[in-house]
Specification:
elongated, alpha+beta
């Protein structure tokens, strides 16, 4: 999306994040690998593997080439079984085969099932969605009812190809945001199932207070009045080190309109509740003619008062930049300087129709 270029410095944890799954308490992902090669799995893992065989009967014709047990291989942050399969019967020295399975040791939860396919043909999204939903119902049962479709990914350039359907489950009082990815190929069905990985700093619902949530949502409503019934589905808190900017600590929220798929937008604020950035993930039809500078300046001044309220006087107008583009959105950027902090700036970006692309508050090193 072209609008993301303007907010890249603050969207290092992009809305289109890799599909992470999170444990009940935020934890630091394991950085070191400690895997032990074994000759067999335990009864809990065998029960899970039998379930995999039921849903993926093709795997019964494969051979187990390597079994490993340990932590840290793929970032789940738990002790797990890694089982590597080969089409031909042979023992492996490395976990590189034709298919693989990952199972959590303590619970037997299936983390990942993957066939090493090449150049799968993608599916129309409506077909991929229905097939993925049917698969999840068979594979994880009632748990699938807690997930909704977040987005589609057509891997046309990669070695695997096919279409990924990414499902998400919004954070709960005692659980963080979770995702599941299902990869399908035309005429071959589901070829991979993957729970997301642990993301450092993700929060549970109980780790946010209602006041800060409502304050963040109110800012989004002021910038995007068309938004209806927004709710926070994912939250992350931690220290950020973004290139040429001063290091800072912030809370990031991803929001969604109730009853709709995909993220509506994103908002970030510091530990004092001051807005750092916000943006909308959806794009409007391209408008090649940029918003006139005088109109952009007027609209930006109103937004500064609305978003920063009693502190709006800390920002003084600096300058306007326009960037016309052919066949895509032309944008107008309005800049404000902080009156007391010389290297601190506020950037508000508009599309040609006057809609807001992003608001970004940053301080240079």
């Amino acid at each position: 999306m072209n609008i993301k270029k303007t907010t890249a410095i603050f969207l290092s944890m992009s809305l289109l994040i890799t599909t992470p799954v999170f444990s009940k308490e935020p934890q630091k992902p394991v950085q070191t690998t400690s895997m032990q090669t074994l000759t067999k799995i335990d009864a809990t893992a065998q029960k899970s593997l039998n379930k995999i065989y039921q849903v993926f009967p093709e795997l019964k014709n494969y051979h187990i080439g390597m079994i490993q047990k340990g932590t840290g291989k793929h970032g789940y942050g738990v002790e797990q079984w890694d089982i590597t399969f080969t089409k031909e019967k042979k023992k492996l020295n490395t976990p590189q085969g034709d298919a693989s399975v990952e199972i959590e040791v303590s619970t037997g939860e299936i983390l990942n099932v993957n066939f090493q396919d090449k150049q799968l043909a993608p599916l129309p999204h409506n077909q991929a969605e229905q097939q993925a939903k049917d698969f999840l119902q068979r594979f994880i049962g009632n748990e699938s009812k807690q997930y909704i479709v977040q987005r589609f990914e057509d891997n046309t350039l990669g070695t695997t190809g096919g279409t990924n359907v990414v499902f998400s489950k919004k954070m709960q009082p005692n659980e963080t945001f979770k995702t599941i990815s299902v990869r399908l190929g035309a005429n071959v069905g589901v070829r991979a199932f993957a729970r997301g990985h642990t993301e450092l700093g993700d929060l549970t619902g109980n780790q946010l207070n209602r006041q800060e949530i409502q304050s963040a949502l109110n800012k989004l409503y002021k910038v995007y009045p068309e938004a209806k019934q927004l709710e926070v589905v994912r939250a992350n808190r931690g220290k950020r080190d973004v290139g040429f900017l001063v290091k800072y600590e912030s809370t990031q929220l991803w929001v969604q309109e109730k009853g709709k798929n995909g993220f509506f937008g994103f908002v970030e604020y510091d530990l004092s509740g001051n807005l750092l950035s916000l943006s909308k993930s959806e794009t409007s039809p391209p408008i090649e003619k940029p918003l006139p500078e005088n109109k952009a300046k007027e609209k930006a001044a109103v937004l500064v008062k609305d978003l920063y309220e009693k502190n709006w006087g800390d920002y003084a107008f600096s300058h306007v930049e326009t960037k016309p583009f052919k066949n895509k959105d032309s944008i107008t950027k309005v800049y404000f300087k902080h009156v007391n902090i010389p290297k601190k700036e506020l950037e508000i970006v508009f599309n040609g129709d006057g809609s807001v692309v992003s608001v970004t508050n940053f301080e240079k090193k």
